[in-house]
Amino acid sequence: MSVLDNWGSWKDFLGDRLHQAEGDGLDDRAVSELAYEVGDYLANQVDAKNDQEAVLRDLWSVASKEEQHAIANMMVKLVHNNGTK
Predict the structure, then answer these.
(1) What would the pLDDT profile of 49-67 be if each residue is shown by its tens digit?
(2) For residue 2, which of 47, 43, 32, 65 has the smallest C-alpha distance?
(3) Domain map (residue ranges) of the chain
(4) Which stretches of the chain score pLDDT less than 70?
(5) What Pfam families would the database entry show (predicted)?
């Protein structure tokens, strides 16, 4: 089963990656840019595996670049307290 198949697993996975990046010394700006790049890749290259991902993909597709950055930043905030560590 892929982490993309389940919204909770996906948030835990993102939370783990966020904590790893912070532990490696990435600052908020670098995390934000990385989140934007991941969001753009997922929206354009990966089929949504659940309803939540479909909503995010649809919002991403109609958002301006500035709004896409805001979505990415909101996802970082959403998963900040998630993860298995």
Answers:
(1) 889 889 999 999 999 999 9
(2) 47
(3) 3-79
(4) 1, 3-4, 83-85
(5) DUF3243
C-beta atoms surrounding 37 within 10 Å: 11
Q: Which tokens go with 33?
A: 């840019």
Which whole-number Å values give the CA distances from 43 to 7, 64, 79, in the listed order? Answer: 15, 13, 18
The helix/strand/coil state of 68 is: helix
Q: Which two tokens stand for residue 11?
A: 């948030």
Please tell me the predicted confidence (pLDDT) of residue 54.
Answer: 92
As a CATH number, domain 3-79 is: 1.10.760
Two tokens, residue 84? 């298995």
Rg of the chain over all Cα atoms, to the nearest angstrom: 12
**pTM score of the predicted model:** 0.82
Count other C-beta atoms under 10 Å from residue 36's C-beta: 19
